[in-house]
Amino acid sequence: MASLTTIGTGATKQYKLTWDINTTDGTRKRRSKTFPVGTPFSLIKSYKLKVEQEYLLGELQLVENTKTVSDMITIYLETYTKFISPSTLKGYKSIIYNHKDKKGVLDYWGDTYLHKITVDSAQKYVNFLVDCGLAPKTVRSYVNMMSILFQLADELSYIRRGYNPFSHLRLPPKQIKPIEVFTENEIRTLIHKAKETENEMVLLILILGALCGLRRGEMAGLKYENISLDDLYPEIHITENVIKVDRIIYEKSPKTSAGIRSIPLGKETVEILKKSRANYEKRKAENPDWIDSGHVLYQEDSGLAMLPKVIGRRYKKFLNDTDIPYRNLHILRHTFASLLAKNGASPKDLQSLLGHSDSYTSIQIYTHSYKDVQRKNTTLLDNKIFNLENSNIG
Predict the structure, then answer these.
(1) Which domain range does residue 40 map to?
(2) Pick from 228, 248, 227: which is nearest to 295 by CA?
(3) What is the pTM of this model?
């Protein structure tokens, strides 16, 4: 593994250390180091021990492969993306093939050999992306894409084991923007208007978003068979998510196991859903060409499921006809979470109801709502303590 030999004698005596190198192609390679005359033998032994330990750990590795970033992109897309969500894959491709300002992964790194990319050059790429005006979150997505390619190259032994110059970079700080939400009165007004105008589908969108916290794709995937309305404890079971990518519709499970969840329903929400279910059955009975999709949100004239884009369009048209400022559809979900937090729901409760993978995510997103709860709690404590002190005076 590593051996010492002597060169010369007496005052000119030197030591030469020779050791093996692991190679990516399995061939044997050797390296050597000759120590200057007079080097303390203890330092030589220490260096020999370090080399032997690195060899055993697989850290001494000679890269014989000449794979480029472009090669890894081809390998990754052709072989290792089968189980990735279509929407996630589309996002990856937008990073790889972004030709604007040549900031995309392929344009910037293309023919660069993997083992030639250093931490310094990786950091320069980050700085370049920032200078191009990309948001901190987007910059992190580009860095993540490069990390994925290096991790794959590591697994395939195309680079030195554990080598990933994108794993420890100085990235722009994350920006946590205040989340805009509807007020209770605004939600109440919107629901009243939807009922008044008999806009059943928009009423359901408002209920599912603001009172149940569903995402747009979860609304599109929700079927009546996934709702328990006649049980003692009525609830919605979230099991499907609908997305449309490049004109292809996908029905899939939520991206994490936390996304599969049950949401308890209030009395008024149950009544609205029962009425909408009865309307669905009535339309089905009256229309011989009815397509029995079973979806809660559907095209009233055909029964076809309503796609996420159509849901957004219906919602926007309705909002624009009101006096309430327009906020995008996802704000309904934020409103649901914000109102729950302000009314004392714990981060763990929010995590479960929203389908977040951990409660930290809920806390980070809805910090502003929890501040109201915290302020209320500290005010109550303040009043209690000072009232107690006043009662003991005299």
Answers:
(1) 2-62
(2) 227
(3) 0.70
Does residue 379 lie within any of the structural domains? no
241-to-238, 244, 278, 307, 386 alpha-carbon distances in Å: 8, 10, 24, 11, 52
350 and 222 in a single domain? The answer is yes
Nearest-angstrom CA–CA distance, 390 and 394: 9
Q: Are residues 194 and 312 in the same domain?
A: yes
Q: Is 384 a member of any domain? A: no
Structural domain contains residue 137: yes
pLDDT in tens, the chain (394 residues): 688 888 888 888 898 988 877 665 556 677 888 999 889 989 988 888 887 776 665 544 544 467 899 999 999 999 999 988 888 999 999 999 999 999 999 999 999 999 889 999 999 999 999 999 999 999 999 999 999 999 999 998 888 788 899 998 999 998 777 778 999 999 999 999 999 999 999 999 999 999 999 999 999 999 999 999 988 899 999 987 877 666 666 677 666 666 789 999 999 999 999 999 999 999 999 999 999 999 999 999 999 999 999 999 999 999 999 999 999 999 999 999 888 888 878 888 888 888 877 655 556 666 556 566 666 667 776 676 777 555 554 4
**Number of helical (H) and strand (E) elements in the chain, helices listed first:** 15, 9
* 313 and 195 both lie in a single domain: yes
Q: Are 29 and 49 in contact (CB under 8 A)?
A: no
Strand, helix or coil at 336?
A: helix
Q: Which residue has the tokens 């949401």?
A: 263
**Statement to judge: residues 193 and 300 lie in one domain:** yes
- 236: in domain: yes
Q: How far apart are CA 159 and CA 156, in angstroms?
A: 8
By the 8 A CB rule, do 27 and 63 touch? no
Distance CA 355, CA 362 (A): 10
The CATH number covering residue 229 comes to 1.10.443.10
